[in-house]
Prior knowledge:
- It is built from 15 helices and 22 strands.
- It is 28% helix and 17% strand.
- The chain has four domains: 6-104 and 174-376 and 412-462, Alpha-Beta Barrel (TIM Barrel), CATH 3.20.20; 109-168, Oligo-1,6-glucosidase, Domain 2 (Oligo-1,6-glucosidase, domain 2, Alpha-Beta Complex); 377-407; 475-544, Immunoglobulin-like (Sandwich).
- It has helices spanning 30-35, 37-43, 78-90, 109-116, 174-190, 225-235, 253-260, 293-309, 326-329, 336-351, 381-392, 397-407, 444-449, 454-467, 469-473, and strands at 11-14, 47-50, 54-55, 67-71, 94-99, 103-105, 128-129, 148-151, 156-159, 166-168, 194-197, 243-247, 269-271, 315-316, 356-360, 475-479, 486-493, 496-503, 509-510, 520-525, 532-533, 538-544.
- Pfam families: Alpha-amylase.
- This is Alpha,alpha-phosphotrehalase.
- Keywords: Glycosidase, Hydrolase.
Amino acid sequence: MVQKDWKKSVVYQIYVKSFNDTTGNGEGDLQGIIEKLDYLAYLGVDYLWLTPIYDSPMNDNGYDIRDYFKVNARFGNEKDLKTLIKEAHARQLKIMLDIVVNHTSTEHQWFQEALKSKESPYHQFYFFKKSNDGPPTNWESKFGGNAWQYDSKSDEYYLHLFDVTQADLNWDNPEVRQEVFKIVNHWIDLGVDGFRFDVINLISKGAFKNSTAIGKEFYTDGPRVHEFLHELNRETFGDKGMMTVGEMSSTSLEHCIKYTREARQELSSVFNFHHLKVDYKDGEKWTNQKFDLQQLKAILMYWQRGIYEGGGWNAIFWCNHDQPRVVSRFGNDENEEMRQTSAKTLAIALHMLQGTPYIYQGEEIGMTDPHFTSIHQYRDVESLNAYEMMKRKGYEESEILTILSQKSRDNSRTPMQWDSSNHAGFTTGKPWIDVASNYHTINAEAALADESSIFYTYRTLIQLRHEHDIITYGDIVPRYMDHPALFVYERHYKDEVWLIVANMTSEVVELPNTLDIKGRRVIQNGTINEYEIGAYGAIVVAKEKE
């Protein structure tokens, strides 16, 4: 395929298990993606990011890989993937694979060999530590509990920063790195166009010492991480013109500039999640907390200004498979009018920023959190662990369910809502997780039939990015940062200025006297005049530079 400037591209994330099921087994599959390629091409996106499609026991829904070279039989086979790539390319869509190389499943052959003998070379593929006093350190797993698991046969502990079935790889071992290069090159040879690297900034571990907190200071943006990524770039995708993005856990601006500055030859772009912690309380995710708009604006602008002034590149996004639905989180899903209006404004506010926009499946039709009412409806290992943790701490059942309904990763993992038929047209069988009950009115078929729907706002925003260089390359200038309701900024490029004004509340807001919204209206949502802006209203105005 001819590669246009990837910086002008828009990525659509597909959570394969929940996208479209063609077999009736209740789980999405590769043929299901092929079936919906025309829909995605019509939306106008450029890349399709597929969550992991490799062979896996699915303890963490595919992020626990058992065989990197084999397609998960639940999703199809390699022939299906080749067909998907071919059919996507025929529609000018590119395929980006999600790859997990910080850890493997404990069912992976490497780990199974590592368990057989300390003398096995594969024992050095992971972090095994001898300790007579319990776990070697007090580091906590990101899914709860200590990050070390005891193995009775070797009388050692192995490190798992995530689930106990996800053992961390030892990247200090050059043999591990060579195996990773083989994996990445295999999929490049098959014809994929890019990669999303899961928690890639955790691959370099520092000193194995006790922490005053949870241990992340010893493995986040570790001592050799930039060396490792430069080597990965050089040995695999670096000369292929591919787009890559790294998921960065608890990272810093300084490191993200290094990860993405072109001359350093590491990655194209990065995800960071600081802006999605503005509804945490004192850094704690599992809390019943409303989001802080001032903090949200401040973090977005800190990263916008900082990463581009430093010569780096950022991914911009509201949603993914690990985050709640944005219209429920930062918008308003209490009624249909508010859902439509707030979803459009959130889209405008994000897509006018600089960076590569990511749209998560269903976001383009305003899918909401499912508002589950029973723990039995949840499937996510992190959420189930959090439920048990909160139970032990004495939380009431109703309080736990309220928190899960806000923060669980399952909020985004419910099936894609295609139409108003049974199970939202996702499957003819029993879905692996409940469909949100509002699928009768919120679905792609209804959105496509309504030219005023959220879908067409997203389609317009994608077209604007493709057509106007100011969105990709323009400088960003924050405005009215202290305003309690408005998110306002400007984009400057050559002789043009675009003004973006978004009301992030459910109230009508009076515009500041000094805010001039006269000019060519590029896109508008809601009721707006020179004096006030309606609930969740937004406008983008093009002006000539003074």
